[in-house]
Design brief:
CATH topology of the largest domain: phage-related protein like fold
Strand content: 15-25%
Mean pLDDT: 84
Shape: elongated
Low-confidence stretches: none
Structural class: alpha+beta
Largest sheet: 5 strands, mixed
Number of domains: 2
Order of helices and strands: HHHHHHHEEEEEEHHEHEEEHEEEHEEEEE
Radius of gyration: 27 Å
Helix content: 25-40%
Distance between the termini: 58 Å
């Protein structure tokens, strides 16, 4: 579909009295912007959006009245798409589009625990919270009760009170934004495809940013364990060393034991870790020449590929390859470092501003001139902005470590 064919279709509809003549140019542009927005969410949600596009289509075909009611009931989920919904209602007089209802269904599904838009296993294990403002948030999970267990209360005696020491650190949500413009020159040149493709890539970048937040928190805050032969990667000996470190820690004079349940690996080590964790016997060794020596880390943890982690550890915050600020906690990390954690302790936390739990929002900039087909007054540009607000932290440092070489 080209710009001119799209506009000609709306002009024909106006001549037939289906839409007002004055709305032709605006509908043309809003249709292009909606195509870009749909591509953005395709890039962000991937197959999940496809699944709900099919669900929306099936409902529309089988029960159009129910489809209309379902869309009307989703106002609170689609409040950032007010302008697009105006155009959408106009378009419904000419054709059908299942996108808005599909997006509402998708946002509902994305609120479920464990959902991650980007292929990041670390993001999937993070504890989630919702905030109403940008004030500092105190991380959960780091408050130490003076009593680790409930106290016995003998009959007819008063209840015993305990105290607590709050050790959680404060962190804040951050507003992440990018915009893509659709220029008058693109409109004049009949270009839609490149704009749509760029919006899909922007969706992938938004998904990647959420994973980046969690990995960034680990890079800055997680303790690092230097291994004697760390340059060899997750060998049986190195995995055992990390297990031993996590199982025997001291915090404020209190002994803390953590179990390594998961390992997050850069591409350099994923195959080696699989062999180390899934070999039941040590290679070339036996006991008394009869029984093989058992691998002490056999199935000790679940391995996960985390390629983005290697990129972030190497490049530093926001992909700056020259970044090496010790104060920010990124110094001396590399693409060979790997992460181990105890997911039962829920050591990672990510918070979302109210309204952003299911993902980012999109905002459209439409012309502020009467001559809509010439774009805005300043620079002849229409635009779609993407915004997301979230922050992440390590809330329990005894339960996540970065394994490093010497």
């Amino acid at each position: 579909m080209t710009v001119q064919k799209l506009r000609m279709g709306y002009r024909e509809a106006a001549l037939r009295g289906h839409i007002p003549e004055a709305s032709v140019d605006k509908l043309t542009m809003m249709t292009i912007l909606e195509a870009g927005i749909q591509a953005f969410y395709k890039g962000y949600y991937g197959a999940l959006l496809d699944e709900h596009l099919q669900k929306s289509q099936d409902l529309r075909i089988s029960n159009r009245e129910g489809w209309d009611m379902a869309l009307s009931a989703q106002d609170s989920v689609l409040e950032d798409l007010t302008g697009i919904r105006w155009a959408h209602r106009q378009l419904e007089t000419l054709s059908t589009s299942d996108f808005l209802l599909a997006l509402a269904y998708t946002r509902d599904a994305a609120r479920k625990p464990g959902y991650a838009p980007f292929e990041s296993e670390l993001l999937k294990v993070a504890r989630t919270r919702t905030t109403n403002n940008f004030k500092p948030i105190k991380a959960r999970g780091a408050t130490n009760l003076l009593h680790r267990f409930l106290a016995r209360r003998p009959e007819a005696t008063n209840v015993q009170y305990t105290g607590f020491i709050g050790q959680g650190e404060f962190y804040s949500g951050v507003n992440y934004e990018l915009a893509i413009g659709y220029t008058w020159e693109m409109y004049t040149n009949d270009e839609i495809g490149e704009f749509v493709e760029a919006m899909e890539e922007l969706g992938e970048a938004a998904a990647r940013t959420r994973a980046w937040s969690v990995i960034d928190a680990i890079a800055r805050m997680a303790p690092r364990v230097p291994l004697l032969n760390g340059e060899q990667g997750p060998t049986i000996q190195n995995i055992q060393a990390i297990k031993s470190f996590m199982a025997s820690q001291t915090v404020d004079g209190r002994f803390v034991a953590r179990t390594m349940t998961d390992m997050y690996l850069p591409p350099a080590w994923d195959s080696l870790a699989y062999v180390s964790l899934n070999s039941q016997a040590l290679a070339g060794s036996t006991t008394d020449g009869l029984q093989p020596n058992i691998n002490p880390v056999y199935r000790a943890a679940a391995p996960h590929n985390e390629p983005l982690m290697a990129e972030i550890f190497t490049q530093g915050p926001e992909g700056n390859p020259s970044y090496n600020d010790p104060a920010a906690g990124y110094a001396n990390l590399s693409d060979k470092d790997w992460v181990a954690l105890d997911r039962n302790a829920r050591p990672i936390e990510i918070s979302y501003l109210e309204g952003f739990q299911a993902g980012p929002r999109t905002y459209t900039k439409i012309p502020d001139t009467v001559e809509l087909n010439h774009g805005s007054f300043e620079n002849h540009t229409y635009a779609v902005k993407v915004g997301d607000v979230h922050g992440a932290t390590v809330s329990e440092r005894t339960a996540v470590v970065i394994a490093q070489g010497t």
